[in-house]
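Practice problem 4.
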């Protein structure tokens, strides 16, 4: 069951961005999606550079996770804000969705593939004998302990969290990646991004996390910052 859920998780990570892209396909869609990829690359590079500059090497401590959330929020807001200085870069709701589609292909699919695909490998070769053909004994023991410690409910939570996060980020991107954005909307974007990442990295209570996600989703659609919003 865990193997099936992991495969579903990775498939959804790819399908969701592609559905957004095909729903809003238009002339120049590849360039718009490439812009989304560029936003991800630059914001991630800025976050990593800042983390290296301040000596943030891991996210084991709660204080380090809070610092990381602040860095991610500022980096993403700064990069998107710099791009918005060129009025020709952003446009209508279709282009905003395409930009997010490119961003989420990296942020959702490639990230999840890199982070979780090894679990599928372990699930397929779920025995020490099979895994020893690929890894040393110590690594095999660590992989099996990690995989066996993951429950079906953990993967279900991961899937639901990924879907909620996808649409929360989508709503925020469609608010900000368009023409004639006001300073108040940048503040709303920054606050929304901060709350979302803070709930991901700093809140351990799953009920509270889902409550925050529901509030963010409701706020996004209530204020028409979803993909249905016109520029």
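Answer key:
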């Amino acid at each position: 069951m865990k193997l099936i859920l992991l495969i579903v998780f990775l498939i959804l990570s790819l399908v969701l961005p592609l559905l957004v892209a095909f729903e809003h396909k238009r002339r120049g869609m590849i360039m718009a999606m490439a812009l989304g990829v560029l936003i991800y690359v630059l914001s991630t590079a800025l976050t990593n550079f800042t983390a290296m500059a301040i000596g943030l090497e891991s996210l084991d401590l709660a204080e380090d996770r809070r610092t990381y959330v602040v860095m991610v929020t500022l980096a993403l807001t700064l990069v998107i804000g710099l791009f918005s200085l060129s009025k020709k870069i952003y446009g209508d709701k279709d282009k905003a969705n395409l930009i997010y589609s490119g961003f989420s292909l990296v942020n959702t699919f490639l990230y999840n593939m890199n982070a979780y695909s090894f679990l599928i490998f372990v699930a397929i070769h779920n025995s020490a004998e099979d895994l020893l053909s690929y890894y040393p004994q110590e690594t095999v023991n660590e992989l099996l302990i990690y995989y066996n410690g993951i429950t079906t409910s953990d993967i279900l939570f991961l899937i639901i969290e990924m879907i909620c996060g996808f649409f929360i980020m989508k709503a925020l991107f469609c608010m900000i990646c368009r023409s004639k954005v006001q300073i108040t909307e940048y503040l709303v974007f920054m606050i929304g991004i901060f709350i979302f990442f803070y709930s991901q990295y700093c809140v351990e209570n799953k009920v509270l996390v889902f409550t925050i996600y529901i509030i963010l989703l409701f706020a996004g659609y209530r204020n028409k910052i979803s993909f249905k919003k016109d520029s």
